[in-house]
UniProtKB/TrEMBL annotation:
Residues 68-214 form the IclR-ED domain. It comes from Streptomyces mauvecolor. It holds the Pfam family HTH_IclR. This is IclR family transcriptional regulator. The keyword Transcription applies. The keyword Transcription regulation applies.
C-alpha cells in the first residue's frame, strides 16, 4: 500500500474478488484468514458492502456476491461490445456468417454483441441478449474448454452442429488473458459442417478482441 491508496477500500475490493472466485461463499473466518486481518475488520467490511447490496449473507452466515454487482456489470457490457465490434465485423464479412461475442452470465452463455454479414443471401439470425447453457453450442463449449485448460494451453476452437438450432453449425474460440472477463468469439452458419478455414479464423478474431480488451 502507498500513501495515495486507501487500505479500507483495498480490503473491500479484495473481499469482492475473493467472493467472486467461489461458488459457495465464504465465512467470516475464511475471509479473515485469506485477508490476514481480524474478524472485526471483516465484519465491518461486510456490513458496509451489504449496505450497497454488493454482498449478501445466507442463513448459514456465508458471504456471497450481492445483486448490486449486477447493476455495475450491466455498464461493462456496452464497453466490451464497442471494443469487440471491429473484429466481429471483419470476421462476419470474411466468413460470410453471423459473428458474435459471448460472455459468461451465471451458468449461461450470453451473446452481448452480434454482427451479421452484409453480402450473403441468407444467414442465421442471432440476437444480442440470446442466452443458452454453457454446455450447449460452440460459444459455451469453447469457454468450458478454456476453463479446463486453465490458461496453460494455446487456445483452440470448438465446433458444434445442431445443438442450438437445427441445421446450424457453430465455431468458437475463447478469450484468453483478459482479466475479469470470461467469454468467446464465434460464428454460426447454416451448414452441415464448418469449413476448414473457419476455425483458425475464429481463433484469430478471439485474439483481436482479447487484445482490444486488455
Amino acid at each position: 500500500m502507498t500513501a495515495e491508496t486507501s487500505q479500507t477500500l483495498d480490503r473491500g475490493l479484495r473481499v469482492l474478488k475473493l467472493l467472486a472466485d467461489t461458488d459457495h461463499g465464504l465465512t467470516v473466518t475464511e475471509l479473515s484468514n485469506k485477508l490476514g486481518v481480524n474478524r472485526t475488520v471483516v465484519y465491518r467490511l461486510l456490513a458496509t458492502l451489504e449496505q450497497h447490496a454488493l454482498v449478501r449473507r445466507d442463513l448459514g452466515g456465508r458471504a456471497r456476491v450481492g445483486l448490486g454487482v449486477l447493476r455495475l456489470g450491466r455498464q461493462v457490457h456496452p464497453l466490451v461490445r464497442e471494443a469487440a465490434l471491429p473484429a466481429l465485423r471483419s470476421l462476419a464479412e470474411d466468413i460470410g456468417a453471423t459473428a458474435h461475442l459471448t460472455l459468461v452470465d451465471g451458468s449461461d452463455a450470453l451473446a452481448v454483441a452480434v454482427v451479421e454479414p452484409t453480402w450473403t443471401d441468407y444467414h442465421v439470425a442471432y440476437r444480442a441478449g440470446f442466452r443458452h447453457p454453457l454446455d450447449k453450442g460452440a460459444a459455451g463449449r469453447a469457454i468450458l474448454a478454456a476453463r479446463q485448460a486453465g490458461g496453460l494451453a494455446e487456445p483452440g476452437f470448438t465446433l458444434t452442429h445442431g445443438e442450438l438450432e437445427a441445421g446450424a453449425s457453430g465455431a468458437a474460440a475463447p478469450l484468453v488473458g483478459v482479466t475479469g472477463i470470461e467469454g468467446s468469439v464465434g460464428v454460426v452458419m447454416l451448414a452441415d459442417a464448418v469449413p476448414e478455414r473457419v476455425g483458425p479464423r475464429v481463433v484469430d478474431a478471439a485474439r483481436e478482441v482479447a487484445d482490444a480488451l486488455r
